[in-house]
Amino acid sequence: MPSWVIGIDVGGTFTDFSARELRTGATFLHKRPSTPDNPARAILTGLDELQEKSGIDGDDVVRIAHGTTVATNALLQRKGADVALVTTRGFRDLVEIGRQIRPSIYDLQIDAPPTLVDRINRLEVTERIDANGTAITPLTQAEIAKLVMAVGELDGIESLAICGLFSFLNPKHEQALAKALSVAYPDLFLSVSSEVQPEFREFERFSTTVINAFLQPPVSRYMQHLRTAIAERAPNAAFGIFQSSGGLMAVEKAEKFPVRTALSGPAAGAVGAAAAGNLSGIRDVITLDMGGTSTDVCMIRDGKTTLSHMRDIAGFSIRLPMVDIHTVGAGGGSIARIGPDGLMKVGPESAGAVPGPACYCQGGIEPTVSDANAVLGRLPTTLAGGGLTLDKGRAVQAVRAVADALEISLEAAALGITDIVTSNMTRAIRTVSVEKGHDPRNFTLMPFGGAGGLHAADVARSLGMARIIIPNAPGILCAEGLITADLQEDFVSTCRFELASDLSALQAPLDELVDRALTWRAYEAAGAEDHRLILSMDLRYVGQNYELSVTVHNAPEKPVLPTRQILLDAFFAEHERSYGHYDPDAPVEMVNLRLKATARLSSAQAGLEVPEKESEPVGIQPVWFNANGPIDTPIHDRATLAPGTELHGPVIITQFDATTVVPSGAVIRVDSAMNLIMELDLG
């Protein structure tokens, strides 16, 4: 009996599907336009189309993994629930005061975004936990009863966040409040900070918990609807949701902790990129995931994605482990406009899936990056395997409006649009590389997403990067990453103290984290393979505001406490790598103890269809690579390129899910993993 796994990634323009049979590696890919008003509609319609196209029986599907943008979009558009906050008396304004950091340090006119919870809906409780975890002001039953009554008097509240001071050290007060409120209001969504993220730094913990409460109702309704509908189509399939830290979690956990999915789709792309690079023996990669609405960039070192424990999304602080992705509003649907200064701007506004670029013939009329590429001859006449026909005439009409406003030629305007979007993406890559002490020239650029290959050579050249790797299915790579993802759960315990020779104080919190990880393994990862426990510690010099995370254990066995010297050596090495120096004599302190539990799910490498004949161009068309004029350029179908094939630019390579532009002077070859390796002449 066949066993199929399906990855589903929802993007701003397209929803992507990748289905793989575990025993044979047989793979089917599918794309369809996204439905922003209801992402589930594109998912369910696409599943039906995929099953019809491939002949996959729903009973043979054993796992479905989903990368979702519902939480991100709800946060960006502020379309979440009406939220209330319960906190320690005297701290109701903490979520508004924040860190007093300006959104834009040089712009005095920009204010921080308004909080997600109105002040009138922030309730205070007389209780207090101190910095040692001791209850110095007990929480009384009378105070709980007053709170229950006060919550009932709030108008229209769907969700409530409970954030007590220092509750990450002692959660008993939060737990008592949550128990009473759940009994009194069983339909009220509750987010408890000691469950969402029990970690040091009060504002960030409060902010993360409020965001979780804001997202719970819409994400929960979406997940429940999708879970029911998918069960009808694939009754035997386990349904997992990809989380921002780079692994799968159960859909029930995603309903409870939707904030963990804030960068779900892009994180899956980074995981897929790491796997694709490993197939070609390329382990140091900078990704360029360019879709219809935005571009996501990420650094992969030694085959592993880098993680960040603090992110700002739409002006809101989230303190959770996330794949370190930087996003800019630069996609195929990014709109070109003339600003008040008379200069052209591209993005961050996007035509998205509806109405889309003008050349998509879906009602869009404004000039976009895709329209510029169509004008320059860089796009084929059809996309998504023939599911979308492009109209170059509409693209010309849209771009001409910009050209006429600037009094330049049509092609100059189109080249200007592509140059600006290239600059936007180049700056994003500098953010994750140069600004963090890494030279991008030591990495290989990996473009993916539907539009990544169109701009990769220009981006790489601007950064001095000589090598580009284009994965086998670049437009579906996020969905591919979902297929190869592990189950994962993160645990954290704050343990602040200066490192001394005796680290025995860490043994009790470490044992507690290990017990929680083993419980998770028994209940949520039963039947999975290659269980691993990854122990890391957040360290900093005494007096520093921010810490560095160092990994000290990565194995199936339970971790053993390292010695002080092992910790110091690891910290010094990481500090030197990050900042270029370290001080061996300065005192170092511990902040957090982190344990990640992973479990590998059954997977298979995609079966590769190797062409038998030598590739011949499927056509020749004039393409503008620069302002010197068009060049007659051969068009190759990637499906006809066998391993060992070598092509010299200029060449356009088309495939079901993406288009790759190979400029003059570049050489591209197909390696044994069926990835494309492009070498640029930077002389």
Helices and strands in order, then pairings?
Blueprint: E1 4-10, E2 14-21, E3 27-33, H1 39-54, E4 61-67, H2 70-76, E5 83-88, H3 94-97, E6 122-125, E7 128-129, E8 135-137, H4 141-152, E9 159-163, H5 172-184, E10 189-192, H6 193-196, H7 202-233, E11 238-242, E12 248-250, H8 251-256, H9 264-279, E13 285-290, E14 295-301, E15 304-305, E16 307-308, E17 311-313, E18 316-318, E19 322-323, E20 325-328, E21 334-338, E22 344-350, H10 369-375, E23 382-383, E24 388-389, H11 392-406, H12 410-432, E25 444-448, H13 452-463, E26 467-470, H14 477-484, E27 487-498, H15 507-524, E28 529-541, E29 548-555, H16 564-579, E30 588-600, E31 619-624, E32 630-637, E33 646-648, E34 651-654, E35 659-662, E36 667-670, E37 676-679
Helix pairs in contact: 1-7, 2-7, 4-5, 9-14, 10-11, 10-12, 11-12, 12-13
Q: Given the helix and strand composition, which structural class is it?
A: alpha+beta
The CATH architecture name of the domain at 76-219 reads 3-Layer(aba) Sandwich
Q: How would you sum up the global shape?
A: globular
Strand runs, count: 37
Reported for the largest beta sheet, the result is: 6 strands, mixed
Round the Cα radius of gyration to an integer and report it.
26 Å
Strands in their spatial order, largest beta sheet: 3-2-1-4-11-12
Task: Determine the N-to-C terminus distance.
Answer: 56 Å
Provide mean pLDDT, rounded.
91
SS element count, helices: 16
Q: Give the fraction of residues assigned to helices.
A: 25-40%
